[in-house]
Description:
Layout: E1 50-56, H1 60-68, E2 73-74, E3 77-78, H2 84-93, E4 96-102, H3 113-133, E5 138-142, H4 149-162, E6 167-171, E7 173-174, E8 177-178, H5 185-193, E9 197-201, H6 221-235, H7 238-241, E10 246-249, H8 250-253, H9 256-263, H10 270-274, H11 287-293, E11 295-297, H12 304-311, E12 319-320, H13 350-364, H14 366-373
Parallel strand pairs: 1-4, 4-5, 5-6, 6-9, 9-10, 10-11, 11-12
Antiparallel strand pairs: 2-3, 7-8
Amino acid sequence: xxxxxxxxxxxxxxxxxxxxxxxxxxxxxxxxxxxxxxxxxxxxxxxxxxxxxxxxxxxxxxxxxxxxxxxxxxxxxxxxxxxxxxxxxxxxxxxxxxxxxxxxxxxxxxxxxxxxxxxxxxxxxxxxxxxxxxxxxxxxxxxxxxxxxxxxxxxxxxxxxxxxxxxxxxxxxxxxxxxxxxxxxxxxxxxxxxxxxxxxxxxxxxxxxxxxxxxxxxxxxxxxxxxxxxxxxxxxxxxxxxxxxxxxxxxxxxxxxxxxxxxxxxxxxxxxxxxxxxxxxxxxxxxxxxxxxxxxxxxxxxxxxxxxxxxxxxxxxxxxxxxxxxxxxxxxxxxxxxxxxxxxxxxxxxxxxxxxxxxxxxxxxxxxxxxxxx
Length: 374
């Protein structure tokens, strides 16, 4: 595949974050199997081919509303600027063919009632407009006016059936109520009927409900909250009752791969061992299978350590590329390779990276796949 990148270099905003520079985390790259010898880095594919399933957007009125309501940071990261032109420049620099855009935490839940519903409709209609102006560069996941379930069902139906958005984004929890709670059942019915692709993104935890550590939420707390949501969806049977919904877990599933054995320990108990093979297994005994059915994105997780853990719990066709831009702008590498996730080459060869970064995402988003092929 030949490169179609523009010659101009994409310029990142280098303003200081979190009161002084970046907090860097270095991790050793370990291949599958637990060996201590790092695998030699493999060559990455070339060209503008990546399909980004974890990319955010902040339409003008939405960003203005965030700032007006005091959301100067998101997960501890300064609320960024965004425009279609900036997004396309970013994609061109990093070899990204198209992005499936979504509204990050806090969604529209900082509003209520009609204000929340109107803001969700504004964001979703804005995204649909990008399909018309840039059909080969953008897809989108619909934001819903959660936790208002009737209004969210109405907006999901409109966004999926009328606007033809590519899926839905849900936060891990709303007002402390996690996905998997029975209150969300009517929405899941509607999404299951539409074979929806659902991107599960972490939400910030109130300061009163977490340790008082001097760390931004996006470093650790976001990963833990994704894990809580995934666990609740599994143990309450939500992932069993709605098999037509494909759930994508942000940031390589948070800590789900690492905790997979612990989460499925009930199946190793006497109850699991004696359960009749010809009867459906309760969700608490079927956790391993449910973990394997999730989709895991590479956003802020493009390392051999993270991907090796994911490969232990699911197959490679359940891994999809994500950049987390523009919230990752300060952490993305700016190297001559124009590779947004060079650590993926510590564990995947070029063909495998093409599968993860192009084939797998488009398999889940048929509307976008058709648009790119037109």
